């Protein structure tokens, strides 16, 4: 049986969603997937980034990670997406990439892929669920299959309990967060594997 191909795609200004993506990639590999860890291209002007030391440092931490391309979207059987909340929806850097996917959508290349989403926001009620929903809304236009974590694992009763996707506040993942992301990623791999047959 061929290993499911999973693209873990993230955008991160300060490191939180980068951390989530790294955990998700490791868990997907452990679950038997072929994995690509990919960042979304930055769109903010370099002089703005250079003016904020934490942003600049995060750019350096991610410098070895390739930028996601349309080929990666076609290659993958499933997507694990992690992007920060910006005014209640996904960061515009991710939306800019999404807005290049028209040609793939047109040929049906995105249909039937699996997808799961995570996010971080400054405030617990600051738009985490709406951000994940905004990603899932787009995925429905593609004909992708949403693999939400639900409450199908006990960790969801410890991690803040967002059944749509793991969500957190900025900072490094704690042990519960790591287990929750690993569970969500493994569920994506297993569901993708079932669909591949
Ligand atoms: C322009 C902008 C808009 C934001 N909007 C929200 C928001 O609506 N709700 C919220 O709780 N946090 C908001 N934040 C905080 C971000 O969600 C936070 O910086 C992000 O989760 C950190 O993720 P990262 O470490 O991966 O960059 C916003 C931050 C910026 C810069």
Automatic annotation (TrEMBL):
UniProt keyword Oxidoreductase present: yes
Coiled-coil residues: none
MF terms (GO), sorted A to Z: FMN binding; NAD(P)H dehydrogenase (quinone) activity
Keyword Lipid metabolism among UniProt keywords: no
Domain of life (superkingdom): Bacteria
Entry GO terms, CC: membrane
Ranges for domain Flavodoxin-like: 6-196
Alphabetically ordered keywords of this record: Flavoprotein, FMN, Oxidoreductase
Family to which this protein belongs: Belongs to the WrbA family.
Protein's name in the database: NAD(P)H dehydrogenase (Quinone)
The species this protein was found in: Pseudoroseicyclus aestuarii
